[in-house]
Design brief:
Subunit structure: Homodimer.
Bound molecules: adenosine-5'-triphosphate, magnesium ion
CATH class of the largest domain: Alpha Beta
Order of helices and strands: EHEEHEHHHEHEEHEEEEEHEEHHEHEE
Pfam families: ATP-grasp, PurK_C, RS_preATP-grasp-like
Number of strands: 17
Structural class: alpha+beta
Pathway: Purine metabolism; IMP biosynthesis via de novo pathway; 5-amino-1-(5-phospho-D-ribosyl)imidazole-4-carboxylate from 5-amino-1-(5-phospho-D-ribosyl)imidazole (N5-CAIR route): step 1/2
Number of helices: 11
Largest sheet: 9 strands, antiparallel
Radius of gyration: 20 Å
GO cellular component, one term: cytosol
Low-confidence stretches: none
GO molecular function: 5-(carboxyamino)imidazole ribonucleotide synthase activity; ATP binding; metal ion binding; phosphoribosylaminoimidazole carboxylase activity
Shape: globular
Mean pLDDT: 97
């Protein structure tokens, strides 16, 4: 049987690995950390750094296709891997999404609405950008940000000095603050044959920059739902994408605005594990393995709640709830802000 190589051994890598095993694949995870969620459920673990060229070559030769659970894979590692095995999703999706400027340029180049934005490297750039975009606004590092890290809110121009200091010299992007009513995301998949399938959009609530809950169905009109799915499909087609992508959207009276894209399975897609016959993890494995995409029709209403930090202490109670599907990541130590697991509370959809 074939072996799926997964770069990254966090919870996303773990759940990809479980899905792959269920389809009869072997899995091989590449992860510098030792005792990681992905390694617990994979057949092989390459415990090596991304600058270890021999390990990267050995990993690539041990697998049939390379996929990943995070977008910040060093370019030098990808250069080595791609000479040996296909990388899915491909390089273009990584190039575009590794930098918030490239990503915004790509999205606006497709004619999609984004927040107004400008590149900011210096305090002078920031003054100019605030002059054009106004406040409130958010200054974000262009690279490596997640869970709201590397972001500074600028409520008035007086906040600029602190915001640029918060970037610690890293290249940044200023985004105008979008006055949204709520946030939704589309988990979309595209196969090697170019077929596209989207899961029902989910409605996302964040707390302190971290996703707390995703609820399906989202509050969207039929027209908004159509817009959301069509714009996601355009993004995937434009990248000749293979695999699952998360597309985060702001809902505004003027229409949908794209916040960001993630070229991988996405936290806001975890509800699919208990809401669909084929979940986002299986869908991703199907796509990267060249299988036909599965049926992502939603059979249930679901509220996904992330278990973050101390939330893990509530597991004994949650385990007694009816219709609650627990997914725990097996992380040894619990830290504030750390994603320890999630629970999908399910209500069968009325016919
Ligand atoms: P993730 O963990 O989703 O990758 P991230 O660190 O990349 O998060 P963003 O998604 O850019 O960060 O921002 C986190 C949250 O901050 C958004 O979901 C949204 O609630 C808010 N936010 C970000 N950018 C804007 C904006 N331009 N206008 C209004 N709110 C915003
Ligand atoms: Mg992000
Ligand atoms: Mg986000």
């Amino acid at each position: 049987g074939a072996t799926i190589g997964i770069l990254g051994g966090g919870q996303l890598g773990r759940m990809l690995s479980v899905a792959a095993s269920r389809l009869g694949f072997k899995t091989c995870v590449f992860e510098p950390g030792g005792d990681c969620p992905g390694s617990h459920v994979s057949n092989y673990h390459f415990k090596a750094d991304y600058d270890d060229e021999d390990a990267l070559r050995a990993f690539a030769k041990a697998v049939d296709v390379v996929t990943y659970e995070f977008e910040n894979i060093p370019t030098s590692a990808l250069d080595i891997l791609e000479t040996i095995r296909p990388i899915r999703p491909g390089r273009e999706a990584l190039r575009v999404s590794q930098d918030r400027m490239t990503e915004k340029d790509f999205l606006s180049g497709l004619g999609l609405a984004t927040a107004p934005y400008a590149a900011v490297d210096t305090a002078d750039d920031l003054t100019g950008a605030i002059g054009r975009i106004g406040t409130p606004a958010i200054l974000k590092t262009r690279r490596f940000g997640y869970d709201g890290k590397g972001q500074a809110r600028i409520m008035t121009p007086a906040d600029a000095e602190q915001a640029i200091a918060d970037m610690a010299g890293a290249p940044a992007i200023l985004e105008g603050f979008v006055d949204f009513s709520h946030e939704v995301s589309v988990i979309a998949a595209r196969g090697t044959d170019g077929a596209v399938a989207c899961f029902d959009p989910g409605e996302n609530v964040h707390r302190e920059g971290i996703l707390r809950t995703t609820t399906v169905p989202a509050r969207l009109t039929a027209a908004q739902r159509t817009d959301a799915v069509l714009l996601a499909a355009r993004i995937l087609n434009a990248l000749d994408y293979v695999g699952v992508m998360g597309v985060e959207l702001f809902v505004t009276p003027g229409g949908l605005i794209v916040n960001e894209i993630a070229p991988r399975v996405h936290n806001s897609g975890h509800w699919t594990q208990n809401g669909c016959a084929v979940d986002q993890f299986e869908q991703h494995i199907r796509a990267v393995a060249g299988w036909p995409l599965g049926d992502g029709t939603r059979h249930s209403d679901v509220i996904m709640e992330n278990l973050i930090g101390d939330d893990i202490d509530r597991v004994p109670q949650i385990a007694r709830e009816p219709h609650a599907a627990l997914h725990l990541y097996g992380k040894a130590d619990c830290k504030p802000g750390r994603k320890m697991g999630h629970v999908n509370r399910v209500k069968p959809r009325e016919a």
